[in-house]
Structure formats: C-alpha cells, structure tokens
Design brief:
With 419 residues, the chain is an alpha+beta fold. 45% of the residues lie in helices and 18% in strands. The chain is built from 10 helices and 13 strands. It has a 7-stranded antiparallel sheet. The chain has a 4-stranded mixed sheet with strand order 9-8-10-11. It has a two-stranded antiparallel sheet with strand order 12-13. The structure holds zinc ion.
C-alpha cells in the first residue's frame, strides 16, 4: 500500500442563484493574481535594468525596486476603495490566488533550469525559419513559459480554497461565501478528513469541483515478473515488445474534422457578434470532447500496462518524425505521447512499478535478434528481413524489443556491431 497526494475532478451543478457569486469569486481571484503578477514583473524588469547598468537614474530605480518588493496582502487590497468588492469573497480564496502567482514563477524557473524553456525557444525559432520576428512575435518569444495575466475572456476560470468541508453523504462540497455545491458521482478516492482543499473550476461552459487529498491509500498492483519495451508512434500510440499494438487514439480523425469545421465556422462570424460567441463555445466544446476521449483512452491503456508489467521502458519521442511540418494529426500525436508518458510515470509510482524513458537511437534499425544494424529503413518500411540472420521483423515491435533491451541492460543491444 502506498500513500499519495491526489486530486479528483468532479462535474458540478451549482444552482442558478450561485452563478453571480461564483463569477465574483473568479473575478476577485484574477484580480489578486494579476496585481501580484504585475508587481513581480516590475521587480524583474527593474532588477534587470539596474543590473545592466544601462540607466543614469539608478538611485531612483533602486528606490522604486524597494517599494515594489514590499508585498501587499489581500487584507490591504481590500481596504482600497477601488477593490472594495474583494470583501465579498472568502479570504482563503484570495490567499490561494496570491500563492498561485508565486507557484507560477517557481514553475517558470524550473522550466528555465530543466531545459523546457530552451526547447520551446528552439521550436519557436524553428517555426520562423530564419525570418526576423515582428513585435508581436518578439513579445511572445520573450514571455515563453512565463506566467500570464488572467483574462475574463479565458475559457477556463478557477478559484481555490483551503476550506475542507465536504459532505459525501449528499455528494456536495462547501465553498465559503458561496454555499454547498452538488458534485456528480464523486469517486471518493479518499476520506473526507484527508481533503486539504478544493478548487472550483469553469471550463468551456461546464463547472467542476476538484477535491485535493492530502493522502490516498492505494493498493499496490501484484508483481508479474514481466518487463516490457514500448515504441511510440502515430498509427499506434504504443507498440510493445510482446507484439501488442494499441491502435491510434480513437476517433481522432473525426474529432479533428469537427474541430476544423468549428474553426472555419468561427472565422466566418462577425467579430463581437452573438453568433461568434456561440461558435466559439461550440469550438471549445469540440476541443473538450476530443481531449476527454484522448485522456480516457490513454488512462485505460496505461492502467493495462502497469497491471501487466513490473518494469516499463518507453522510447524517447520518435526523432525520425522530426518536429517540422506541423499539422493537426501530428500535434495530437505529440501531445498524446506526452500524456501517455506522464500517465505511465505516475501510475507506475502509485502502483509500485518501474518506469523509465530510454534513448531510442538506432532502436528502429537494429535487428533485435542478432544486433545487425540495417540502415536501409525508411519511414514507410513496415517490416523487414535481417540480411544477417534472416529474422523477419515488424518494424515497431522490433524497435520495442530493442527499447526493452536498452532499458533492462543499460546498453544498446548489438552496440559492438555499430561501425
Ligand atoms: Zn539479425
């Protein structure tokens, strides 16, 4: 058994009479977040300017910086007449919003450290193809991974509270300054007393209550003694070294066709019109539907894999597909690989299994039987016969077997044969 921190997202149905209070809480949360973000941004800018020495009024700037560094609490903002409306919202909600802002910067610094930012910058430049950036692009580039101001127009809104009141008998959660809100069939992953807080969310026209558990008891899955290698792809999201092929994400083509249609529809509508906002909601729903389908498929697939195997090795993103030539199917595949790995990683941890990403260099080209490197494989080669030992290989299964070998031994199979 293991104890883990877990969140549970449940569809919620607030009564009509709560809606204005809920949106007031969203608005106040955004305000606190944006006020804090504005301050942090100024601190960053002033610090950079002073450091660069590229200014002749350094004393003034330093004074200004000291002033910005003094944090203003929610309680102080509440006293400013302009922000009087903050008094109508529960203080834990406002406090959580301030903390969210500082977590957002922490995430930014982590992404800067671990190379995510550099990767995104490289992708951005790659798309430009050598063309100089215009002002808009320059702004976007310098703000990659950084926290963004929250807008009323976002299709996602949320607020969080550390209030822990939940009633599992009537399936409802209490939000201070709002009231009890019904949840649809909560899974009840843990006990009510293990809840550390709650988030109320709005996403594309639907409401959700997310319960945050401090700890959830999870039974470990029984050991099977089996090890598997997994090759990621588009036709099949995952192909295993045992020959299992997952198939592509279900109805992905239909979902993409629906999204393209909704996008075209949206662009045909007059800016600011009622019809445009209707078309936008429709497009958001299509995105949501697709995302749910993909998640559902990947959850089932990853659960199956952690149940069947003790050690799971997954090849790094297929490099031969390249990052250029973006289209919808490709970006869907990329995001599904990313989710697949993330789901596998946390499920392996929860259920006491091992998960590792391995470098998949040459895994497509090496014969998994004798180690011969057959470099004559193109993207369209589905199967091949090893000229050295005559083994017949399915391209993806062979790659998955090599990934398993690399993962479990730590050395690439047949490495000695690579000239
Ligand atoms: Zn061979």
């Amino acid at each position: 058994m293991s104890d883990i921190i877990l969140s549970e997202k449940n569809r919620a149905y607030p009564p009509e009479s709560y809606i204005s209070k809920i949106w007031q809480a969203f608005g106040s949360t955004r305000k606190i977040f944006n006020l804090n973000l504005d301050k942090t941004k100024k601190i960053y800018q002033l610090t950079a300017l002073i450091k660069s020495g590229d200014c002749d009024n350094i004393d003034v700037l330093e004074d200004e910086l000291e002033k910005e560094k003094i944090r203003i609490t929610e309680a102080a903002y509440k006293k400013i007449p302009e922000y009087d409306y903050l008094n109508e919202v529960d203080s834990t909600i406002l406090q959580q919003s301030r903390m969210k802002e500082s977590v957002a910067w922490k995430n930014y610094r982590r992404q800067k450290r671990d190379g995510t930012l550099a990767k995104k910058q490289a992708q951005f430049l790659d798309k430009l193809n050598g063309r100089p950036m215009d002002d808009k692009e320059q702004y976007k580039f310098s703000n990659l991974c950084k926290p963004k101001f929250k807008s009323r127009k976002n299709s996602k809104q949320s607020f969080k509270t550390t209030n822990v009141k939940v009633d599992f008998v009537n399936n409802q959660a209490y939000f201070p300054s709002i009231g009890w809100i019904k949840m649809k069939n909560p899974r009840k992953l843990g006990k009510a007393e293990d809840i550390s807080g709650k988030t109320f969310k709005y996403e594309n026209g639907q409401y959700f209550v997310v319960l945050h558990y401090r700890k959830v008891h999870v039974e470990l899955l029984p050991k099977t003694g089996k090890t598997v290698g997994i090759d990621l792809g588009i036709k099949d999201v995952a192909v295993t070294s045992d020959g299992f092929k997952s198939g592509k994400v279900p109805s992905i083509n239909e979902a993409d066709i629906r999204i393209s249609r909704d996008q075209r529809n949206l662009h045909r509508k007059v800016l600011g019109s009622n019809n445009r906002s209707k078309a936008r909601t429709k497009l958001q729903r299509s995105y949501l539907k697709k995302s749910n389908q993909v998640k559902d498929f990947l959850h089932k697939l990853t659960k199956k894999l952690v149940s069947e195997y003790d050690e799971i090795f997954v090849g790094d993103v297929p490099s031969q597909l390249g990052l250029k030539n973006h289209n919808l199917a490709k970006s869907t595949a990329e995001s599904s690989w990313h989710k697949f790995k993330a789901f596998l990683e946390y499920k392996a941890e929860i259920y006491g299994k091992k998960f590792e990403i391995v470098d998949e260099k040459y895994t497509t080209q090496l014969c998994s039987y004798c180690g011969f490197r057959f470099s004559d494989i193109s993207l369209s080669t589905r199967s091949w016969i090893c000229p050295e030992c005559n083994s017949k290989h399915d391209r993806d299964v062979n790659a998955a077997i090599n990934i398993r070998t690399v993962g479990s031994t730590g050395i690439a199979f047949g490495k000695t044969n690579i000239s």
